[in-house]
Amino acid sequence: MVHAACLLDQFTRVVRFRVRNLSAEEHLLLSRLHVVENLVLRQRLDSEGTAQSIRWYNLRETLDGAVPKYITSDCEFAPRHRADTSLGRLLECFTHWTYEYHGRQALLCGFRGVEWAITDVTIMDNTRDWFLQNPYTGGLQLFASTHVCGPMCGVIGLTQQPPYYPVGPPPIQPEN
Hints:
InterPro entries: a-kinase_dom, Kinase-like_dom_sf. By secondary structure, this protein is α+β, with helices and mostly antiparallel strands.
């Protein structure tokens, strides 16, 4: 999530620099939108004798409002899955920007959150593992073949992407 937060900060600066006619709502979104830090702590409790127990703690920002909900589609990029809100359009452009930022070898998508707090994000990456091994290029291929740029993509200099072709072998061999 730290990687996602750093990319979102950089993307926000790009949008503010290049988009001259942001609406008041878009300014508010850019100033408040953030990725929630999620810390997982493990505590080993020594008990008398040989048995040990482990407790896990998940620490993150308290969120006001409803239970986290999807604020963009779950990594579906075709126009019929387009989010019909300013936040959704901004995050669709962010997904495209992350695709170009990573040299068309990775992207961030599937954002979940409440209001301006992004609680979950999916990272599709052809070059490294992030969580549960993901040397899967299907999401990158789907993005390259179905994403249609919105107005903000063009304003910040993004263009319709060419078909996706993986560069080199996936990071993990299937037999491993």
